Amino acid sequence: MSLVEIFRAVFINIWASKFKVFLTTLGIIVGSVTIILVIGIGKGGQEDVAEQFRNLNATSIFVMPALGKTTQATLGLSDVEAIKEGAPSLSDVTIMVSGKADASYRNTSYSAGVTGATEEFCNIQNLTVKYGAFISHYDNERRKKVAVIGDEIAELFYGDEKSEAVGTDLVIKGRRYEVIGVLERVGDSMQGFSPDEGVIVPYEAAEKYILGRTRPRIMALAKDVDHVASAIEEITEVLNKTYQGKSDAFMIRDAGSRVTAAQDSARTMSVLLIAVATIVLIVGGIGIMNVLFVSVKERTKEIGILKAIGARRKDILLQFLIEAIVISTSGGLIGILLSIFVMPLMQYFDLRVIPSLYGYVMALAFSIATGTFFGYYPASKAATLRPIEALNYE
Amino acid sequence: MKKTKAVTKRLKPYVQRKEGNDSMQDHRLISMSNIDKSYQMGKNELKVLKEVSLEITAGEFVAVLGPSGSGKSTLMNIIGCIDVADCGEYVLAGENIEAKTEDGLAHIRNKEIGFVFQKFNLISKYTAVQNVELPLLFRGIGRKKACEKAKKYLELVGLGDRIHHKPTELSGGQQQRVSIARALVGEPKILLADEPTGNLDSQSGREIMDLFMKLHAEGNTIVLITHDSDVGKQAERIIHVRDGKIYEE
């Protein structure tokens, strides 16, 4: 029988039991959608990580209060000085506190992310000042009430005339701060700090008037990537000297290991989702196999008739196998179509999904593979039925 | 029925004349010797055919008569190559059947044999013409050609106006005609009919028998299996099967 005729027979068969076929296809549709989402979410996760750390210097080192430790110790400006002295592998060190505080300009008020930092912060965070200037050493020393504002805050308070912001006064927690600079737009936020919707004030002003001594962090830049390890050692040594017996109150992390950790968790997520997709597809495949077995049983007599009038094993095998492949392929295609509608919905769950051709191809490939794999056994069962027994089957 | 009998007698010389042109050897279509067949029924072995030897010549109209359980259906299945003998020799149209693989048998069933079953055995989701096309499609003939030929044979059996009907839309007699058209379309050497009138009312049964007589008159070799001696009598040669052995009349 020519392939065209086999396909024709397959379509007549599928049409004759379309509802059953549709139910079978559901398993494959779900499997295919899952694969596309898995790959999309995986890509989204990777992209998220990449974006989070885009502005992060690979040589950054963070010293922060350790979580869940009973020993209490708080970092301060003196530690910055000590580290500057004792850690020659570093090029820059700053200290920062951050928190939320109400900032208002004229009648507009906004709960902004306030960061108190020293002048080195600009360089360490890769920030660019668009209008005006960043906080200076002098501002810090004098605890001057000045502020550098992010792009979104500037837009909120000043609309399109962001350059007008420089020289005006903001009120933060009841005190007036003169805006001395507006930052260039950064885009997506970094971990724990989003410059676009933030206000940066001198460290000591923030500590004294706005946030208090709330878990200050030290940020530092190593001279280059090769100096990160030695810089961490030097910082540890300095802190050990200062906080004898209490140095475990801090943890020291470098940007590289943070990126790796984030990527690892994104990857773990992908692996987990791939496991789910695999299970869904196997279940879908078993569904196909089950339906085909029932179909072989139901059509035993028909197989007997076909064999009696001259169908070879190959004719029967191909008919059932192609049926399985057609069912699974259409399941895969429907899944692809469906995923195009489902993917935008994922944003409501705060999940970033990036559609990709790779995802579609994988979904289709896995669907077809499932159909072929699980369809072969019932098909070969049908093909090897003995004509006399099949013909006498009632 | 008397009328059909008369037809048979009248046509006999025609068949003999056809045979007379060649030696008998070339026209020996079926040659069986010492065929044994048994089935396992639980622990017991049931011997269905015992040392059956049979020869059928091209152009013959043979009735195989016997009560149910006599082994006639098994004999037909072996003749039709949908079952194989345990031992013995079976040569069909010059080809040794024991040596064939399953696909080889499929090829022989497709080319040499046309089956007509008691329960018609049409495929219900196909139309009449699609059913009749099947043997040709299995042979690898293109759909267009197969369709043309199928239509021709449906016309021959008197169903030219019903070709796009599905079996469920046809009467029993009409379904049997479709199945005869399907048996004939591949131009087989033997038409093998198993109780072709068994599921039909007497009127349709007579019509089907008339059709067989006509086909025989055109030179077809027909082997008809039946338990009904009235049907069997219409053949020119009757073989009785009883307890797995055959007796010629």
Mean pLDDT across residues of chain B:
84
The parts of chain B where pLDDT drops under 50 for at least 5 residues are 1-25
Rg of chain B (C-alpha, Å):
18 Å
CATH hierarchy, class of chain B: Alpha Beta
The first-to-last residue Cα distance of chain B is: 20 Å
Say how many strands of chain B there are. 10
The percent range for strand residues of chain A is: 15-25%
Contiguous uncertain segments of 5+ residues of chain A? none
What percentage of residues of chain B falls in helices of 4 or more residues? 25-40%
Named CATH architecture of chain B: 3-Layer(aba) Sandwich
Largest interface (CB within 8 Å) is between: A-B, 25 and 27 residues
Give a written overview of the molecule:
The complex is a heterodimer of chains A (394) and B (249). Chain A has 394 residues and is an alpha+beta fold. Chain A has 2 domains: 3-51 and 261-392, no CATH class; 74-242, no CATH class. Chain A has 13 helices and 10 strands. Chain A has a 6-stranded mixed barrel. In chain A, strand 6 and strand 7 (175-183) form a beta hairpin. In chain A, helix 9 crosses helix 10 (300-308). Chain A is elongated. By secondary structure, chain B is α/β, with parallel strands linked by helices. Chain B has a single domain, classed as Rossmann fold (3-Layer(aba) Sandwich). Helices cover 39% and strands 27% of the residues of chain B. Chain B has 8 helices and 10 strands. Chain B has helices at 2-20, 72-79, 102-112, 128-138, 143-156, 172-185, 202-217, 229-232; strands spanning 28-41, 44-57, 61-65, 87-92, 95-96, 113-116, 190-194, 221-226, 237-242, 245-248. In chain B, the strands form 2 sheets. A 6-stranded mixed beta sheet of chain B has the order 6-7-8-3-9-10, with helices on both faces. In chain B, strands 2-1-4-5 form a 4-stranded antiparallel beta sheet, covered by helices on one side. In chain B, a hairpin with a 2-residue loop joins strand 9 and strand 10 (245-248). The two termini of chain B are 20 Å apart. The model of chain B is unreliable at 1-25 (pLDDT under 50). The A-B interface holds A 1-2, 4-5, 8, 12-13, 16, 301-302, 304-315, 387-388, 391 and B 77, 80, 82-83, 102-103, 106-107, 109-111, 115, 121-123, 125-126, 134-135, 137-140, 142-143, 182, 186.
